[in-house]
Amino acid sequence: MSALLSIRDLHLNYGQFAALHGMDIDIDAGEIVAVIGANGAGKSSLIRGICGTEGDAKGSITLDGRELLGLTPPDIVHAGIGLVPEGRRIFPSLSVEENILLGGQLGQLHGKDPWTLERIYELFPDLVPKRHISGTMLSGGQQQMIAIARALMTNPRVLLCDEISLGLAPTIIGRLYEQLIKLASEGLAILVVEQAMRKALEISDRYYCLLEGHVSLSGASDEADETRVAQAYFGR
Amino acid sequence: MELVNTLVQGTLLGGLFALYALGLSLVFGVMRIVNIAHGDLIVLLAYVGLTVTEFFGVSIVVAAPAVLLLAAGAGWFLQRGLFEFVPRHDPLIPLLVAFGLSIILQNLMLLGFGADPQKLSIGRLEQASVEILPDLHVGVFSLLIFGAAVALIGGLQLMIYRTSFGRALRAVSDNEANAAMLGLDTRAVFRKAFVIVMVTVAIAAMLMSVRGNFDPASGPTRLLTAFEAIVIGGLGSMWGTLVGGVIIGIAQMVGAQIDASWQVLSGHLVFLILLILRPRGLFPKNDG
């Protein structure tokens, strides 16, 4: 029985440059999996490989048995992959609510309970008073909430979070991760890509450490030995 | 009274200029393509209207749905068959493609329809006028054109700001790469957008073809007027485009009072002056 999202021997090339050389990663429903690694270790390439946005990918990425490799990004979102992109990517011409609703136009329902604005605002009550102003007028933490909300509105089975803690205050990061843990407990599979190693290990169930385009170490997060992880992280 | 008359005629003429400009503005706003062939597409659809009316022996009023349908199809085909294959990382490439399209269209129209000016007629309505103020008569058809411009802008605004397609359109216009990364089918958005653009072009073309003469070389002047209306109004503001059109229309009418040869020139002069005074237009979009 393979995992909900199962990545096998994933290679990703940008022209002559190979960013990923054979990566195996599994994520199951209800699980938070952290992917950590330094700059250039292949974290962003992994996200791009799964989303089908850039590069030439080989290997296999299956979601509940269905092969995603070769599908277009819209079809991959339809299949149940939701992306919270690095840098949030909020559209300035759209209000907070419109940014969130845009997600609803992209996905497709897989389970029973579709994500609605009501459920989103229950999860992120901070957004309610701001819902009619431009999305980019909000603070970094609130913009990150919009980005997560937008991804949730696609009704994903797997949520990919790319560097959501970047540039945010620790208290805000803590609150965002609390929400992710809650979402995972409701059955969502979550992959968090993080540069911040310690924080990522703290909130995840399992981790993969990337180094130069391959998995250098993996295991259960609460059993992670910090010196070994640091070695796998920096390659020394 | 003379002055009021001039202002009113100029304002109504501005509606036609705004109609020319709407499609051009949309193509630039969403696809970042400066469609040099826009004026020629207007003239082409005027010829399509002419052909349909002659072939079936009906008035353009009856033929309008068919022309709109043909235009929608042409819009889909233009995007699917041409602009989709044009790389847009360098704005010069689509500009040159559109320029080529413009030349091809002009020559094909010359080949197919000859150089003689053409005009469509809708009978008595063309000459009909109403007295809106004592001693102030306006053409019913001019009012119709202005009404069409207001209605079309209102409709487009509703579409852009109140529908899910409009949401996608604005997202793509903000940042195409981000929209694509999040899984938005940008190709589908572009195809639909070009269909809508060509429907606006068809509406402008049919009204233009009844209002005055057109020939295969009429496109570039329509394009120029459309450009000026957009720039005066401020990029991305459709009501601004209407105001821009009205300003050019009034300038032309005032110029025509001085001397007939001043009509077109004075429109361009006012454009030039406003460009110097307000380079971002009267109603610039706040893009931070």
Protein architecture, described:
The complex is a heterodimer of chains A (236) and B (288). Chain A is an alpha/beta fold and 236 residues long. Helix content of chain A is 33%, strand content 28%. Chain A contains eight helices and ten strands. Chain A has helices at 43-51, 73-79, 96-104, 117-123, 140-152, 170-185, 197-203, 226-234; strands at residues 5-14, 17-27, 32-37, 56-63, 66-67, 81-84, 158-162, 189-194, 206-211, 214-220. In chain A, strands 6-7-8-3-9-10 form a six-stranded mixed beta sheet, sandwiched between helices. Chain A has a four-stranded antiparallel beta sheet with strand order 2-1-4-5, with helices on one face. The longest helix of chain A has 16 residues, at 170-185. Chain A is globular and about 50 Å long. Chain A starts with a strand and ends with a helix. Chain B is mainly alpha-helical. Chain B has one domain (2-216). Chain B is built from eleven helices and two strands. Chain B has a two-stranded antiparallel sheet with strand order 1-2. In chain B, β1 and β2 form a beta hairpin. The longest helix of chain B has 30 residues, at 2-31. The radius of gyration of chain B is 19 Å and the shape is globular. The N and C termini of chain B lie far apart (44 Å). The mean pLDDT of chain B is 94.
Question: What is the strand and helix layout of this fold?
Answer:
The complex is a heterodimer of chains A (236) and B (288).
Chain A: E1 5-14, E2 17-27, E3 32-37, H1 43-51, E4 56-63, E5 66-67, H2 73-79, E6 81-84, H3 96-104, H4 117-123, H5 140-152, E7 158-162, H6 170-185, E8 189-194, H7 197-203, E9 206-211, E10 214-220, H8 226-234
Parallel strand pairs in A: 3-8, 3-9, 6-7, 7-8
Antiparallel strand pairs in A: 1-2, 1-4, 4-5, 9-10
Helix pairs in contact in A: 3-5
Chain B: H1 2-31, H2 38-56, H3 60-81, H4 92-113, E1 129-133, E2 136-139, H5 140-162, H6 164-174, H7 176-181, H8 186-211, H9 219-233, H10 238-258, H11 263-277
Antiparallel strand pairs in B: 1-2
